[in-house]
Specification:
The protein is of the alpha+beta class. The strands form three sheets. Strands 1, 2, 5, 7, 8, 9, 11, 13 and 14 form a nine-stranded antiparallel sheet that branches. A three-stranded antiparallel sheet has the order 6-12-10, with no helix packed on it.
């Protein structure tokens, strides 16, 4: 800055020594002696040199300012782009967290429903067992027919229930959907049957011929039909949307006795199917 001021002062001297803008020749012409003319010429040359330097300095300063402005604009653009990326990442993280929380809440609600269903069915287990014993024809406790191999273990959920001729125990599958929950302990309670998923309204077939001994609403079982097949064996069909067989009615194997639904303590359309011997729940897979 001091250098620029000095150079501007030199320009002022030039303007003073050459007010008419006649240049160095006029200044030299006004010289009284040769030495004076020589000194004037040297002085004017110095002023021209300084003036050119000032102009070049100003031009360089302007170019530096333009470069700095472009760099500043590029830096601002880069910062804005990075900020946008961070905002997008933050939004994605928030959305992911919200989805995980919603999924966790949905899973927890599903667990709670299953727990409630299991508790309700367990609470009614003794009552249903006594009711079936009372209404079914008494007989010695049978075992699965000779040659009927016990289930090799719980099937994986989603395995389709087979259909076709009766098993060696004489029973057929009541519906043909996938098994979603097996017989055995569940949530600290006995799950006394198997759950077979099928759409609402799917016809339910009697697993074997017999007499309907229970038909109606039974607490957590919802709409329930129990068929006594004799010899102490009875089958139960729970959560029906609509019952198609009344108490005392004789039914044949494969006859429609109701329709799949989700009544009572249920978490979705499915058939809860049980096999009972003298009222005691058995693994249905050993009889199908």
């Amino acid at each position: 800055m001091q250098d620029l001021r000095r150079r501007l002062a030199d320009q002022a001297i030039q303007a003073y020594t050459d007010p008419a803008g006649q240049g160095g020749l006029s200044a030299i012409a006004r010289s009284r002696t040769l030495d004076d003319a020589s000194r004037r010429q040297a002085f004017l040359g110095l002023i021209r040199t300084n003036t050119n330097s000032v102009v070049e300095g100003l031009r360089g300063t302007r170019e530096d300012q333009e470069v700095a402005a472009r760099q500043l604009e590029a830096a601002r653009k880069t910062a804005a782009e990075r900020a946008a990326v961070e905002v997008s990442r933050t939004k994605t993280l928030v959305a992911t967290q919200s989805t995980q929380e919603a999924t966790h809440a949905e899973l927890q609600a599903r667990i709670n429903h299953l727990q409630e269903e299991s508790d309700a069915l367990a609470a009614e287990e003794a009552a249903l067992q006594n009711l079936i014993r009372t209404r079914s024809a008494p007989a010695a406790a049978p075992t699965p027919a000779a040659g009927a191999a016990p289930s090799a273990g719980p099937a994986e959920p989603g395995e389709s229930a087979p259909s076709g001729p009766p098993s060696s125990a004489g029973l057929i599958w009541p519906v043909g959907g996938p098994v979603t929950s097996e017989f055995g302990p569940r949530w600290g309670r006995l799950h006394a049957g198997i759950d077979i998923a099928d759409p609402n309204g799917t016809p339910i077939a009697a697993s074997a011929g017999g007499v309907v001994v229970i038909s109606g609403v039974q607490g957590g079982y919802g709409n329930l039909v129990v068929v006594d097949h004799g010899n102490g064996i009875a089958t139960a069909y729970a959560h029906q949307s609509r019952i198609a067989a009344g108490e005392g009615q004789s039914v044949s194997q494969g006859e429609i006795i109701g329709y799949v639904g989700s009544t009572g303590n249920s978490t979705g359309n499915h058939l809860h199917f049980e096999v009972r011997v003298n009222g005691v729940a058995q693994n249905p897979r050993n009889y199908l």
